[in-house]
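The instructor's notes for this session suggest beginning with a concrete chain rather than abstract definitions. Hand out the sequence below and ask the class to guess, before any prediction is shown, which regions might be ordered.
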Amino acid sequence: MTRSERLVLVIAVLASFVAFLDGSVINVALPALSEELGGGLSTQQWVVDAYLITLGSLILLAGSLSDLFGRVVVLRAGLIGFGVTSVLIAVAPTAELVIVLRALQGVAGALLVPSSLALITSTFSGGSRARAIGTWTAWTSAAFLAGPFLGGLFVQFLSWRWVFAINVVPIAVTIGLLAVLGQRDERRPGARVDVLGAVLGVVGLGGPVFTLIEQQNYGWGSPVILVPFIVGLVSFAAFLWWQSRAAAPMLPLGLFRERNFWAGNIATAFVYAALSVSGFIVVIYLQQVAGFPPTLAALAFLPVSLANVLLSRVFGGLSARFGPRFFMTMGPLLAAVGHLLFLTMGERVDYWTQVLPGVLVFAVGLSMTVAPLTAAILSAIPPEQAGIGSAVNNAVSRVAGLVAIALLGIIIATTLDVESFRRVLVVLAVLFAAGGLVSLVGIRNPSRESRDDARAGAEQ
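After discussion, reveal the predicted structure:
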């Protein structure tokens, strides 16, 4: 890599690391936050949900802004916003203020991930792009790995407030590196925001996201759930209608004519629906049914995070050399096999013989999937549309995860026991396998000439 490319990769990794770290560290801080500021369980839920709702609602708009006004401009705005809200949360005197600030932090977070990936896409090409995305995937996985550990240390030895204050350090470093990079974005000639599309898109995503998060608290029959859900669906339908007619649409629907883009996003929906339930349900089962201590149950999936850190860049490079189709097919199928291996668990569980084998197979399968999947989707569209392309993929993964979590109660029925746990495992295996089969049928490898160029890029 050139010096400039290395800087871009480090900036993209750090920017995303902040957002992903915050997502994994927050749960550790919630009990201490609630104990100091009051509010109980409802406060803890809203500290998490306020962030997720604004993040999910604004992700498409943020991706569009990245394409219109430049990756660096939007990324810098997101970093500053995330840093300011983090400091304010760290000194907030009331739980209500924390919730409001978390919603604003979600707005800033929506600007970070699409812009960081778009920055990689517009800087790298061919094999070097796939390897860069693999590196990005590895370090965002490291954020999930480090988050609970760092959060636990801060909460135990300092205060829950440090969980948020510590964000300032990587944000300051990233903003400094942006200044060193000195890259200036050029605003797209005649660029303007599709205001009507933005409003319809925010409401269209925000309503269903709110519904899927809060339905467990209010129930599907509540007007608090039904009204936002119906308004959201109608708004999203109107959004799609408007995007097909707008002169400068926020989401160019022509993107979905690209085979690898639409096929990759369908595969994303299946894979990330399964992922959202997987670690959650296994860890809960190990605690509630098998009697594992919380710490040991949480460490059960540690090999998955380690494998992602170590292997994502490798599989990113291999997919650039040989095409993503094989990896996007075999990876989810291996993940499915890993979950079927968990079927041996009963009320008494031996980690080494009944959990670890499935975890290891799942770890390899997931590492084989994520970087090739992201690279295939972003390589299918022009670099100047990488912001909205990344935002679409991010929105698909988030909504798929929320839908899966919302349906989990139907699969479990009343009580999590051996029988209901096995039903969930079979459903997860089917979802992973569906993602692999969609990739087998839908994904197309680049031409031989493109792969030769990618191979040259990967070797450099």
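Then share the key points. DSSP finds 17 helices and no strands in the chain. Residues 83 and 168 are 5 Å apart (CA to CA).
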